[in-house]
Amino acid sequence: MEKPVIGLAVGQGTGPELANVFERVLRRFAGTGPTGIEIDRSPRLYHSYVSLRAEGDAEHVRRLTEEDARHYERFCRTRAERGTTAVFRTAINAQSLYLVRERLGAVKVDRLTAGDASLLLVRDQAQGFYTGENRHEPGVVTRTMTFSRRITESVVRYALRRAREEWPERGAGRIVMAYKFHLLDGALGGWVAELSDRFGVEIELFQPDTVNRNLIAHGPSDRTVLIAGNEWADIMHVMLLDRFGSHRQENRCTENVYLHPELKELTEYQTVHGSADDLAGRDLVNPVATIRAAALAAERHAGRAGAVADTEAALRRLDERGVGTPDTGGRHTTTGVVDALLDTLGRPAGAAVPPPASDPVIAS
Fold first, then answer.
1. For the Isopropylmalate dehydrogenase-like domain, which residue ranges apply (predicted)?
2. Is the pLDDT of residue 363 over 80?
3. Reported pTM
Protein backbone atom coordinates (compact mmCIF):
# COMPACT_ATOMS: atom_id res chain seq x y z
CA MET A 1 0.00 0.00 0.00
CA GLU A 2 1.27 3.46 -0.91
CA LYS A 3 1.81 5.93 1.91
CA PRO A 4 -0.51 8.97 1.53
CA VAL A 5 1.19 12.37 1.33
CA ILE A 6 -0.18 15.60 2.80
CA GLY A 7 1.44 18.91 1.85
CA LEU A 8 2.27 21.57 4.44
CA ALA A 9 2.94 25.27 3.77
CA VAL A 10 3.90 27.59 6.62
CA GLY A 11 3.67 31.36 6.93
CA GLN A 12 5.20 33.71 9.46
CA GLY A 13 3.44 34.92 12.60
CA THR A 14 2.03 31.90 14.44
CA GLY A 15 2.51 29.69 11.38
CA PRO A 16 5.45 27.65 12.75
CA GLU A 17 3.57 26.94 15.99
CA LEU A 18 0.44 25.80 14.15
CA ALA A 19 2.49 23.72 11.73
CA ASN A 20 3.82 21.88 14.78
CA VAL A 21 0.25 21.35 16.00
CA PHE A 22 -0.79 19.98 12.61
CA GLU A 23 2.16 17.59 12.47
CA ARG A 24 1.59 16.30 16.01
CA VAL A 25 -2.09 15.57 15.43
CA LEU A 26 -1.54 14.08 11.98
CA ARG A 27 1.21 11.83 13.36
CA ARG A 28 -1.29 10.50 15.90
CA PHE A 29 -3.66 9.52 13.10
CA ALA A 30 -0.77 8.17 11.04
CA GLY A 31 -0.19 5.60 13.76
CA THR A 32 -3.74 4.24 13.36
CA GLY A 33 -3.21 2.93 9.83
CA PRO A 34 -0.99 0.38 8.09
CA THR A 35 1.07 2.80 6.02
CA GLY A 36 1.61 5.96 8.05
CA ILE A 37 1.21 9.43 6.54
CA GLU A 38 4.00 11.41 4.92
CA ILE A 39 4.14 15.20 5.32
CA ASP A 40 5.78 17.14 2.49
CA ARG A 41 6.67 20.57 3.85
CA SER A 42 7.38 23.52 1.58
CA PRO A 43 10.95 24.75 2.15
CA ARG A 44 9.91 28.43 2.14
CA LEU A 45 8.59 30.32 5.15
CA TYR A 46 6.03 32.61 3.52
CA HIS A 47 5.40 36.17 4.63
CA SER A 48 2.49 37.47 6.65
CA TYR A 49 1.30 41.03 6.07
CA VAL A 50 3.05 42.16 9.23
CA SER A 51 6.38 40.59 8.28
CA LEU A 52 6.14 42.10 4.80
CA ARG A 53 5.55 45.60 6.14
CA ALA A 54 8.75 45.29 8.14
CA GLU A 55 10.74 44.60 4.96
CA GLY A 56 10.72 48.09 3.44
CA ASP A 57 8.90 50.25 0.89
CA ALA A 58 6.04 49.33 -1.43
CA GLU A 59 8.32 48.23 -4.27
CA HIS A 60 10.18 45.84 -1.98
CA VAL A 61 6.89 44.51 -0.60
CA ARG A 62 5.57 43.99 -4.13
CA ARG A 63 8.65 41.99 -5.13
CA LEU A 64 8.48 39.73 -2.07
CA THR A 65 4.73 39.29 -2.55
CA GLU A 66 5.30 37.99 -6.08
CA GLU A 67 8.16 35.74 -4.95
CA ASP A 68 5.94 34.15 -2.31
CA ALA A 69 3.12 33.71 -4.81
CA ARG A 70 5.34 32.09 -7.45
CA HIS A 71 6.88 29.74 -4.91
CA TYR A 72 3.58 28.65 -3.39
CA GLU A 73 1.97 28.18 -6.80
CA ARG A 74 4.89 25.98 -7.84
CA PHE A 75 4.62 24.00 -4.59
CA CYS A 76 0.91 23.33 -5.20
CA ARG A 77 1.46 22.40 -8.82
CA THR A 78 4.27 20.01 -7.92
CA ARG A 79 2.26 18.34 -5.19
CA ALA A 80 -0.71 17.85 -7.54
CA GLU A 81 1.55 16.41 -10.25
CA ARG A 82 2.86 13.87 -7.73
CA GLY A 83 -0.61 12.76 -6.73
CA THR A 84 -1.08 14.66 -3.47
CA THR A 85 -4.72 15.58 -2.93
CA ALA A 86 -4.45 17.83 0.15
CA VAL A 87 -2.32 20.62 1.58
CA PHE A 88 -2.57 22.36 4.94
CA ARG A 89 -1.50 25.99 4.83
CA THR A 90 -1.17 28.39 7.73
CA ALA A 91 -2.04 32.04 7.10
CA ILE A 92 0.13 33.98 4.65
CA ASN A 93 -0.08 37.47 3.19
CA ALA A 94 -3.43 37.83 1.40
CA GLN A 95 -1.99 39.58 -1.64
CA SER A 96 0.33 36.66 -2.39
CA LEU A 97 -2.45 34.22 -1.69
CA TYR A 98 -4.89 35.85 -4.08
CA LEU A 99 -2.35 35.85 -6.89
CA VAL A 100 -2.21 32.07 -6.47
CA ARG A 101 -5.99 31.75 -6.17
CA GLU A 102 -6.48 33.71 -9.36
CA ARG A 103 -3.92 31.67 -11.31
CA LEU A 104 -5.17 28.32 -10.05
CA GLY A 105 -8.90 29.07 -9.97
CA ALA A 106 -9.69 28.67 -6.27
CA VAL A 107 -13.02 28.41 -4.48
CA LYS A 108 -13.53 28.26 -0.71
CA VAL A 109 -16.15 25.79 0.49
CA ASP A 110 -17.89 25.64 3.87
CA ARG A 111 -21.08 23.85 4.90
CA LEU A 112 -23.09 25.54 7.65
CA THR A 113 -26.22 24.52 9.52
CA ALA A 114 -29.08 26.56 10.95
CA GLY A 115 -31.48 24.35 12.85
CA ASP A 116 -32.80 21.84 10.34
CA ALA A 117 -31.53 23.84 7.36
CA SER A 118 -28.11 23.47 5.76
CA LEU A 119 -26.19 26.00 3.68
CA LEU A 120 -23.29 25.31 1.33
CA LEU A 121 -21.15 28.41 0.87
CA VAL A 122 -19.00 28.36 -2.28
CA ARG A 123 -16.84 31.46 -2.32
CA ASP A 124 -15.44 32.54 -5.70
CA GLN A 125 -11.79 33.40 -5.05
CA ALA A 126 -10.61 33.24 -8.66
CA GLN A 127 -11.89 36.55 -9.98
CA GLY A 128 -13.09 39.98 -8.97
CA PHE A 129 -11.84 42.83 -6.89
CA TYR A 130 -9.56 40.73 -4.67
CA THR A 131 -7.61 39.45 -7.66
CA GLY A 132 -5.66 41.39 -10.27
CA GLU A 133 -2.53 43.50 -10.27
CA ASN A 134 -1.46 46.90 -8.95
CA ARG A 135 0.15 49.80 -10.80
CA HIS A 136 1.85 52.41 -8.63
CA GLU A 137 2.18 56.12 -9.39
CA PRO A 138 3.04 58.87 -6.90
CA GLY A 139 0.23 58.88 -4.37
CA VAL A 140 -1.95 56.51 -6.44
CA VAL A 141 -2.44 52.74 -6.63
CA THR A 142 -4.48 51.50 -9.60
CA ARG A 143 -5.79 47.95 -9.29
CA THR A 144 -6.86 46.09 -12.43
CA MET A 145 -9.02 42.98 -12.20
CA THR A 146 -11.36 40.88 -14.35
CA PHE A 147 -14.53 38.82 -14.31
CA SER A 148 -14.95 36.17 -16.99
CA ARG A 149 -17.63 33.84 -18.32
CA ARG A 150 -15.18 30.92 -18.23
CA ILE A 151 -14.34 31.32 -14.54
CA THR A 152 -17.97 31.96 -13.61
CA GLU A 153 -18.96 28.74 -15.34
CA SER A 154 -16.24 26.72 -13.63
CA VAL A 155 -17.31 28.02 -10.21
CA VAL A 156 -21.01 27.33 -10.83
CA ARG A 157 -20.31 23.90 -12.29
CA TYR A 158 -18.23 22.94 -9.24
CA ALA A 159 -20.86 24.30 -6.83
CA LEU A 160 -23.61 22.23 -8.46
CA ARG A 161 -21.51 19.08 -8.38
CA ARG A 162 -20.51 19.66 -4.76
CA ALA A 163 -24.18 20.13 -3.85
CA ARG A 164 -24.97 16.71 -5.31
CA GLU A 165 -22.20 15.23 -3.16
CA GLU A 166 -23.42 17.02 -0.01
CA TRP A 167 -27.09 16.10 -0.56
CA PRO A 168 -26.99 12.97 -2.75
CA GLU A 169 -30.65 12.05 -2.29
CA ARG A 170 -32.29 15.43 -2.95
CA GLY A 171 -29.61 17.75 -4.31
CA ALA A 172 -29.71 21.51 -3.93
CA GLY A 173 -32.97 23.06 -2.82
CA ARG A 174 -32.05 26.59 -3.93
CA ILE A 175 -29.11 28.15 -5.77
CA VAL A 176 -28.31 31.77 -4.94
CA MET A 177 -25.46 33.94 -6.23
CA ALA A 178 -24.33 37.04 -4.30
CA TYR A 179 -22.27 39.40 -6.49
CA LYS A 180 -22.00 43.15 -7.12
CA PHE A 181 -23.32 42.51 -10.61
CA HIS A 182 -24.70 46.06 -11.03
CA LEU A 183 -21.11 47.23 -11.61
CA LEU A 184 -20.54 44.94 -14.62
CA ASP A 185 -22.79 46.40 -17.33
CA GLY A 186 -25.17 43.45 -17.19
CA ALA A 187 -22.53 40.97 -18.36
CA LEU A 188 -22.55 38.76 -15.26
CA GLY A 189 -26.34 38.62 -15.27
CA GLY A 190 -26.26 37.44 -18.88
CA TRP A 191 -23.71 34.72 -18.10
CA VAL A 192 -25.76 33.47 -15.15
CA ALA A 193 -28.91 33.30 -17.28
CA GLU A 194 -27.03 31.25 -19.89
CA LEU A 195 -25.69 28.88 -17.25
CA SER A 196 -29.13 28.49 -15.69
CA ASP A 197 -30.51 27.40 -19.07
CA ARG A 198 -27.56 25.14 -19.85
CA PHE A 199 -27.58 23.30 -16.52
CA GLY A 200 -31.37 23.18 -16.30
CA VAL A 201 -31.56 24.77 -12.85
CA GLU A 202 -32.84 28.05 -11.49
CA ILE A 203 -29.96 30.28 -10.40
CA GLU A 204 -30.99 33.42 -8.53
CA LEU A 205 -28.56 36.34 -8.81
CA PHE A 206 -28.83 38.99 -6.09
CA GLN A 207 -26.93 41.98 -4.83
CA PRO A 208 -25.18 41.20 -1.53
CA ASP A 209 -27.39 43.55 0.49
CA THR A 210 -30.46 41.67 -0.75
CA VAL A 211 -28.93 38.37 0.33
CA ASN A 212 -28.19 39.87 3.74
CA ARG A 213 -31.75 41.13 4.11
CA ASN A 214 -33.22 37.75 3.20
CA LEU A 215 -30.91 35.85 5.55
CA ILE A 216 -31.72 38.20 8.41
CA ALA A 217 -35.46 37.97 7.76
CA HIS A 218 -35.83 34.28 6.95
CA GLY A 219 -32.52 32.46 7.42
CA PRO A 220 -31.40 30.03 4.72
CA SER A 221 -33.89 27.61 3.21
CA ASP A 222 -32.77 24.01 3.45
CA ARG A 223 -30.06 22.87 1.02
CA THR A 224 -29.23 26.37 -0.18
CA VAL A 225 -26.13 26.67 -2.33
CA LEU A 226 -24.77 30.18 -1.88
CA ILE A 227 -22.21 31.08 -4.55
CA ALA A 228 -20.60 34.35 -3.57
CA GLY A 229 -18.03 36.83 -4.79
CA ASN A 230 -15.15 37.55 -2.46
CA GLU A 231 -16.21 41.15 -1.97
CA TRP A 232 -19.15 39.95 0.12
CA ALA A 233 -18.18 36.44 1.26
CA ASP A 234 -14.83 37.40 2.82
CA ILE A 235 -16.58 39.76 5.22
CA MET A 236 -19.71 37.68 5.72
CA HIS A 237 -18.08 34.28 6.28
CA VAL A 238 -17.40 35.03 9.94
CA MET A 239 -20.93 36.36 10.40
CA LEU A 240 -22.46 33.31 8.73
CA LEU A 241 -20.37 31.05 10.96
CA ASP A 242 -21.64 32.85 14.04
CA ARG A 243 -25.27 32.87 12.95
CA PHE A 244 -25.59 29.54 11.16
CA GLY A 245 -22.48 27.48 11.94
CA SER A 246 -22.19 27.81 15.72
CA HIS A 247 -18.44 28.35 15.42
CA ARG A 248 -16.10 31.30 15.88
CA GLN A 249 -13.39 31.97 13.35
CA GLU A 250 -10.73 31.11 15.96
CA ASN A 251 -11.80 27.46 16.08
CA ARG A 252 -12.98 26.84 12.52
CA CYS A 253 -11.09 25.43 9.58
CA THR A 254 -12.23 25.49 5.98
CA GLU A 255 -11.18 24.22 2.58
CA ASN A 256 -10.11 25.78 -0.68
CA VAL A 257 -10.32 23.76 -3.90
CA TYR A 258 -8.21 24.60 -6.95
CA LEU A 259 -10.26 24.22 -10.14
CA HIS A 260 -7.45 24.67 -12.67
CA PRO A 261 -7.37 21.36 -14.62
CA GLU A 262 -3.69 20.77 -13.85
CA LEU A 263 -4.34 20.95 -10.09
CA LYS A 264 -6.87 18.07 -10.18
CA GLU A 265 -8.96 19.79 -7.51
CA LEU A 266 -6.16 19.84 -4.96
CA THR A 267 -7.77 20.70 -1.62
CA GLU A 268 -6.07 23.20 0.64
CA TYR A 269 -7.12 23.29 4.29
CA GLN A 270 -6.65 26.43 6.35
CA THR A 271 -7.75 28.03 9.57
CA VAL A 272 -10.36 30.76 9.24
CA HIS A 273 -8.34 32.97 11.58
CA GLY A 274 -5.26 34.83 10.36
CA SER A 275 -1.56 34.80 11.20
CA ALA A 276 -1.98 36.40 14.67
CA ASP A 277 1.54 37.89 14.57
CA ASP A 278 1.03 39.49 17.99
CA LEU A 279 0.87 35.99 19.50
CA ALA A 280 3.88 34.58 17.66
CA GLY A 281 6.30 32.71 19.92
CA ARG A 282 4.07 33.01 23.00
CA ASP A 283 2.43 29.54 22.85
CA LEU A 284 -1.00 31.17 23.12
CA VAL A 285 -2.56 30.76 19.66
CA ASN A 286 -5.79 28.76 19.63
CA PRO A 287 -4.95 25.36 18.03
CA VAL A 288 -8.50 24.05 17.60
CA ALA A 289 -8.95 25.04 13.95
CA THR A 290 -5.62 23.44 13.08
CA ILE A 291 -6.55 20.29 15.02
CA ARG A 292 -9.76 20.07 12.99
CA ALA A 293 -7.84 20.55 9.75
CA ALA A 294 -5.52 17.68 10.64
CA ALA A 295 -8.48 15.40 11.34
CA LEU A 296 -10.13 16.31 8.02
CA ALA A 297 -6.92 15.70 6.09
CA ALA A 298 -6.43 12.34 7.84
CA GLU A 299 -9.97 11.15 7.17
CA ARG A 300 -10.58 12.48 3.67
CA HIS A 301 -7.11 12.10 2.19
CA ALA A 302 -5.30 9.43 4.18
CA GLY A 303 -7.98 6.84 4.79
CA ARG A 304 -8.30 7.32 8.55
CA ALA A 305 -12.02 6.70 8.96
CA GLY A 306 -13.50 8.19 12.10
CA ALA A 307 -10.77 10.78 12.60
CA VAL A 308 -13.20 13.71 12.46
CA ALA A 309 -15.77 12.16 14.81
CA ASP A 310 -13.06 11.11 17.28
CA THR A 311 -11.55 14.59 17.22
CA GLU A 312 -14.88 16.32 17.74
CA ALA A 313 -15.65 14.01 20.68
CA ALA A 314 -12.26 14.79 22.22
CA LEU A 315 -12.74 18.54 21.71
CA ARG A 316 -16.12 18.38 23.46
CA ARG A 317 -14.51 16.67 26.42
CA LEU A 318 -11.80 19.34 26.57
CA ASP A 319 -14.48 22.01 26.53
CA GLU A 320 -16.33 20.28 29.36
CA ARG A 321 -13.09 20.28 31.37
CA GLY A 322 -12.44 23.96 30.64
CA VAL A 323 -9.29 23.26 28.63
CA GLY A 324 -8.71 26.15 26.22
CA THR A 325 -6.52 29.09 25.29
CA PRO A 326 -7.16 32.59 26.67
CA ASP A 327 -9.20 33.73 23.66
CA THR A 328 -11.86 31.17 24.66
CA GLY A 329 -11.76 32.12 28.33
CA GLY A 330 -9.33 29.34 29.21
CA ARG A 331 -5.91 29.47 30.89
CA HIS A 332 -4.05 26.87 28.84
CA THR A 333 -1.21 27.26 26.39
CA THR A 334 -1.30 26.03 22.82
CA THR A 335 0.92 23.11 23.82
CA GLY A 336 -1.26 22.33 26.83
CA VAL A 337 -4.42 22.15 24.71
CA VAL A 338 -2.76 19.85 22.17
CA ASP A 339 -1.31 17.64 24.91
CA ALA A 340 -4.77 17.30 26.44
CA LEU A 341 -6.32 16.58 23.06
CA LEU A 342 -3.84 13.82 22.27
CA ASP A 343 -4.33 12.31 25.73
CA THR A 344 -8.10 12.33 25.22
CA LEU A 345 -8.25 10.98 21.66
CA GLY A 346 -9.44 7.40 21.56
CA ARG A 347 -10.35 7.16 25.24
CA PRO A 348 -13.89 5.95 25.91
CA ALA A 349 -16.42 8.43 27.30
CA GLY A 350 -16.12 8.68 31.07
CA ALA A 351 -12.56 7.36 31.18
CA ALA A 352 -10.16 9.33 33.35
CA VAL A 353 -7.72 11.46 31.38
CA PRO A 354 -4.29 12.06 32.92
CA PRO A 355 -2.96 15.63 33.06
CA PRO A 356 -0.81 16.68 30.09
CA ALA A 357 2.88 15.82 30.23
CA SER A 358 3.74 19.52 29.86
CA ASP A 359 2.40 22.21 32.14
CA PRO A 360 -0.74 23.42 30.33
CA VAL A 361 -1.72 26.31 32.59
CA ILE A 362 -0.72 29.92 32.12
CA ALA A 363 0.49 31.42 35.37
CA SER A 364 -1.92 33.86 36.99
1. 5-341
2. no
3. 0.93
